[in-house]
UniProtKB/TrEMBL annotation:
One of its GO terms (molecular function) is ubiquitin protein ligase binding. This is NPL4-like protein. PANTHER family: NUCLEAR PROTEIN LOCALIZATION 4, NUCLEAR PROTEIN LOCALIZATION PROTEIN 4 HOMOLOG. GO terms for cellular component: nucleus. GO terms for biological process: ubiquitin-dependent protein catabolic process. It comes from the Eukaryota.
Length: 86
């Protein structure tokens, strides 16, 4: 059985650093998918952990991904704002 995570987002431990531009590119490429599918990538969640509260926000997002449940509008706005800031 395949899990809910994808692996299309750039890996953070490579020579070039992952930036918010990568987040924007990823979100643009996946805009046809439901929001939870757009953020269902381990490396994307790692990037978000640099900008969101790692004790509250990231676990809440990870739970949405695990359950493939709707992501609250507030988190969607935060993530889209981060992507737009690139």
């Amino acid at each position: 059985m395949q899990g809910p995570l994808s692996s299309t987002f750039p890996i953070e431990n490579r020579i070039s650093s992952v930036t918010l531009r990568a987040l924007k590119n990823h979100m643009d490429r996946a805009k046809h998918l439901p929001f939870v599918k757009r953020i269902s990538d381990f490396h994307l969640l790692l990037l978000l952990s640099k900008f969101l509260d790692v004790n509250n926000d990231v676990p809440a997002l990870a739970d949405c991904v695990r359950r493939q449940a709707a992501v609250s509008e507030g988190y969607q706005l935060l993530i889209e704002s981060l992507a737009a800031a690139s």
